[in-house]
Amino acid sequence: MSEGFRGIVQTMGLGNLKPNIVVMRYPEIWRRENLTEIPATFVGIINDCIVANKAVVIVKGLDEWPNEYQRQYGTIDLYWIVRDGGLMLLLSQLLLTKESFESCKIQVFCIAEEDSDAAVLKADVKKFLYDLRMQAEVIVISMKSWDEQTENGPQQDESLDAFIAAQHRIKNYLAEMKAEAQKSGTPLMADGKPVVVNEQQVEKFLYTTLKLNSTILRHSRMAAVVLVSLPPPPINHPAYCYMEYMDLLVENVP
Asked: Which among 30, 95, 128, 225 is least surrounded, fewest beta carbons within 10 Å?
């Protein structure tokens, strides 16, 4: 499947008519059906798209996507985690052209490192949107206040349960990987490739994802659509771990 998809990405289109965006459905069944090959295939496809200089859009919840008669009145929320959020802005504008979403408002959430950065970041983003002639509310969440906001509340409890479950699964996965490497006398291998696993980094990724999920649930539980910019899969990192991060990020998100 990966080889076939790679061939499609490399050959699709003609000249200037080559598409530059690949849209994929998020494989929500990967753990429910215990399909262990899905993480490697899915992450491999993402990496192939990045190498081919294609933007990637991953869609979750297609079965609940409204048709033209189901008008939405909520918000379209954009979480600008990775700084390049231009594609999300484009997608939000395209959604507003559809009858189902034309009554929605756009909210842009940005992450600031410090409280002192919040005002500057908000002003920069508002100016950027003004230059694009886009109507949107800009909300800045600082990393410092992030911890305080997500310490308590039902959204923290929901996210924490998912976090503990993901933490347990990853520990078991890494333990099996280490046992296999020790038994065979080879480096750590995942999906037939050598990998480097920094358990402190894995824990940091999980905790950051926990905070993101709590924040999204706090602000966007009633949103019509939630768009989140994602970092690319880490190099030489097990695909299984990346899928766990993504699962935790969108846990209970509409």
From this structure: 128
